[in-house]
């Protein structure tokens, strides 16, 4: 479950960059922001 969601979010971030055609600093910044959020949200507290 959690891995599926993380995988989907990472794929979405990469597809967004791939769809731009040209890799720019702004594109990379946006993608890294999405990746960071996906990783943070995937950290499940199991206590």
Summarize the structure.
By secondary structure, this protein is an all-alpha fold. The chain has helices spanning 2-18, 25-42.
Description:
There is one protein chain. The protein is mostly helical and 47 residues long. The protein has one domain. Helices cover 74% and strands 0% of the residues. It has helices at 2-18, 25-42. α1 packs antiparallel against α2. The longest helix is centred in the last third of the chain and has 18 residues, at 25-42. It starts with a helix and ends in a 5-residue tail after the last helix. The model has no long low-confidence stretch (mean pLDDT 87).
Tags for this model:
single chain, elongated
Overall pLDDT level = 87
Poorly predicted residue ranges: none
Backbone CA Rg? 12 Å
Order of helices and strands: HH
Q: Which percent range fits the helix content?
A: over 70%
Number of folding domains? 1
- Strand tally is 0
The dominant shape is elongated
Write the layout of secondary structure elements.
Layout: H1 2-18, H2 25-42
Helix pairs in contact: 1-2
